Amino acid sequence: MRTERVEFQGAGGDRLSARLGLPVDGRVRACALFAHCFTCSKDLKSVVNITQALNQAGIAVLRFDFTGLGESEGDFADTTFSSNVEDLILACEFMTERLEAPSILIGHSLGGAAVLQAAGRMPSVEAVATIGAPADPEHVAHLFEDSLDEIEQKGSADVVLAGRRFTVRQDFIRDLAGQRMKETIGDLRRPLLIFHSPNDRMVGIENAAQIYEAARHPKSFISLDQADHLLLNEKDSLYVGAVLAAWVSRYIGPLDEPSLDDGSLGDDDRVVTSTEAGTFRTEVLASGHALIADEPTSVGGTNVGPTPYDLVSAALGACTSMTLRMYADRKEWPLERATVRLRHKKIHAQDEERCGTEEARLDRIDRSVSLEGPLSDEQRARLMEIADRCPVHRTLSAGVVIETEEAE
């Protein structure tokens, strides 16, 4: 994922901080706008994980902090649900000018109610997804239940939501009560995907049922079994991202040619990798094919992809089986399947002269080749010889000269 820091003006005239996540190769298949929950920020890990999954599918994502939240200017106490919807509309206009109009709207929690409310004012939107969204914004008033009397009497009160303190004013409560969500959802007229956890204690599962009942087809529901409201368990947000990326593929166009050509990505025959701050998760672009590399959780990674050494072993295995396939086909031998299993490990050099030196630790790849088909003993023996002649095997055995320079 390539991330750009951007900003735009919100409904109250304040500067709103945003991140534009782009596919690593710059080729944009579609654009999505993400509205996070009103007590969170654009940098919530679950929001970032979902963004990365969509970027991997060629979808650019704009996520931003609502007025008074995260890095955005303004005071949350001065906002209402309606003003946050206006922030969302302005985010859509900004994305349209900056890149292209969003065709996908995604909303988490009260942000889900906001996208349902805003979608009708965004002609470009082709599909909408909600995550843990209330069926009616007024339903979240129970979160302020202990403070409602104080808000009514004094006009405002400090409340604690998701461990953070916010000032909530009477206008905010009254604005929630004035929304007509059932009619809005019924008039949505876009494909709708509803994610919700039956274990959600902040926004009960009955809200998903009410949204589903009010919406027209095509509509889908995905149960996030065992997940919490904020998707704090990483496997839950990764699951949402993967399912969402697959679902929206029905409603967006094919991958375009590079539209953000800065001369560094996707414009030649190089393999490109990109790793952002705070993570080992690395996007890999190889001949137009996007991959993910990572490290195990035991060393600080998130284990969402193979390690670099896994990829080295995979390259050797793929080259080995391809070479065997090519040779058997040329000889017209009955090789039905070639399966290669590999394991990389570090070993200590046995040569006493190398002990105590940097070369005392060697890399070793154990390779096991399984040949299926009615092959003769001679054919099997010959194929095992050929396995050691695959190009990647020769490259690894001979060693590689690597020249490194800093890109301008």
Précis, in short:
It contains eleven helices and 15 strands.
Describe the structure.
Helix 1 packs parallel to helix 8. About 2% of the residues have low confidence. The chain contains 11 helices and 15 strands. Strand 3, helix 1 and strand 4 form a beta-alpha-beta unit. Strands 1-2-4-3-5-6-9-10 form an 8-stranded mixed sheet, with helices on both faces. The radius of gyration is 27 Å and the shape is elongated. The protein has 408 residues and is of the alpha/beta class. It has 2 domains: 247 residues, Rossmann fold (3-Layer(aba) Sandwich); 91 residues, 2-Layer Sandwich (GMP Synthetase, Chain A, domain 3), CATH 3.30.300.20.
Number of domains: 2
CATH topology of the largest domain: the name is Rossmann fold
Tally of helical segments: 11
- CA-to-CA gap between the ends? 20 Å
Strand proportion: 15-25%
The CATH class assignment of the largest domain is Alpha Beta
What percent of the residues sit in helical stretches (DSSP H or I)?
Answer: 25-40%
Using DSSP, what is the number of strands? 15
Layout of helices and strands, plus pairs?
Elements: E1 2-9, E2 15-22, E3 30-35, H1 45-56, E4 59-64, H2 81-98, E5 104-108, H3 110-118, E6 127-131, H4 148-154, E7 156-161, E8 164-169, H5 170-177, H6 181-186, E9 192-196, H7 206-214, E10 219-223, H8 234-248, E11 272-275, E12 282-286, E13 289-293, H9 308-331, E14 337-348, E15 361-372, H10 377-387, H11 391-398
Parallel strand pairs: 3-4, 3-5, 5-6, 6-9, 9-10
Antiparallel strand pairs: 1-2, 2-4, 7-8, 11-12, 12-13, 14-15
Helix pairs in contact: 1-8, 2-3
